[in-house]
Specification:
Length: 94
């Protein structure tokens, strides 16, 4: 299945793109997607998004089709072909 990933702000800068498509096996979840992105984009991605034990950094928001995974099944949120996942770092302003 094909998943569209949109990266914003510092994550976009770290991986060098704001848009990527990832092919995953049917039935994959958010965790599998993040593992695939870590393989593709390496340490720059991992430092921005994941903790050392492979968990999502607490300040990063992941949205699947506009819905925060915190209100779905977290890292076990199942994905389907054509889903769009947004990765949003913390935003500060003043």
């Amino acid at each position: 299945m094909r998943i569209t990933v949109r990266a914003f702000a510092t994550i976009r800068e770290a991986i060098g793109t704001g848009y990527a498509e990832v092919l995953l096996e049917n039935g994959s979840d958010v965790r599998k997607l993040l593992e695939a992105l870590a393989r593709k984009f390496g340490e720059a991605f991992q430092r921005q998004v994941l903790l050392s034990e492979g968990k999502l950094a607490p300040y990063v928001k992941l949205l699947v089709n506009g819905r925060d995974i915190e209100y779905l099944d977290g890292m076990e949120t199942r994905l389907k072909d054509g889903d769009e996942v947004a990765i949003i770092p913390p935003v500060a302003g003043g």
